[in-house]
Amino acid sequence: MNSLNLKDRLSMIFDRDRWTLWMKKYFRYVLAVLVLLAMALILSRCTAGTSADEDPMSGVYQKFSEDSNEELNALIQQYYKDFADGNVDDLQTIATPISDAEKSYIQFFSQYVEEYQNLKVYSKRGADDSSYLVSVYLHMKFKDIETTAAGLDFFYVQTNDEGKLYINNIYSSFNQANGEYELDDNIASLIAAFEQQPDVTALQAEVQQECNEAMVEDESLNTFVNVTLQDAITKWASDYRAQVAAQEAAEQQAAAEQKAAEEAAAAQAAAEQQAAEQAAAAQAAAEQQAAAEAAAAQAAAEQQAAQQQQQQQQQQAAGLAAGQQIRLTESTNIRTSMSETAPRLALAYAGEYVTVQMSYAEGWTKVTYNGQEGYVRTDILQAQVQ
To answer: Which residues form a coiled coil (predicted)?
Structure first.
């Protein structure tokens, strides 16, 4: 595929410097009033040391005449029927490849053509025995124009893998003018040499003269070909360029929207993933904290139970039980802490009662006296137990 974009290729069609070549090449030579452009490359026949069958150029120099090959004639007849009908679906089954631009052009051009008449197929051998260089003489009947216009068209016909003939549309007039598909240099040279042969140029001149005479005799044909049709082609090209540009813009917009949607989806997925990870981390931290708190509570409970057990053992060893009331037999000092030097909280007299709270290994017992808690030496209390 040529690297030029479609806009550039279409602009070539209507470039004033290329207009003559385009009209001659593509519009079925109906505008044969234009001077045929000479091909830049003129090849000499090179047959030394080879047979005619082995030389790919040998067919070019054969004199052609009207072809009697039924398959070839049927192929060309079908091509022009489909072309006149604008039936690109059927057309591309016998001519391939056909670009989107050429499909659009065929459908546009078919609006002005009623039919192709008086087809005469002339052929020469192509690059090998299974290919043909084909010139087609025809009359083009435009709609609402009484006089037909003579034309001359070219095809390069080959044989497919199934042994059937087909038109290699890479060498169509449209592609040769616009370069949408890359040409094979050898076949392009073969075609260039073919179009310079005396019998071919003689046929071209004959068709040109016939077309000139028809347009001189019928002003409506001349006006249609040189004004109406050219204006319509210019408008088609402009519309097609706009259509392609709009399609490209729509595709770019769709691609941008798709990209934005994908990026938004990716960002959403990343945010959801991050949120999920954060939630999982928070849950794990909460579970870890809960486990630590539970372990701490368990340890505290176990420690408290151990302390209580120890206190119970100490109280049992001291013979004093928690909640036990002791009637004092003598006055007793109640201290603020477990020490003989601690301040005295109260002096309990003989006959008064104290209530045991807890005995400690340090030899002191916590008691309640007149609503106050204080400490009394355990041995003093034991001595007063009755």
So the answer is: 246-318
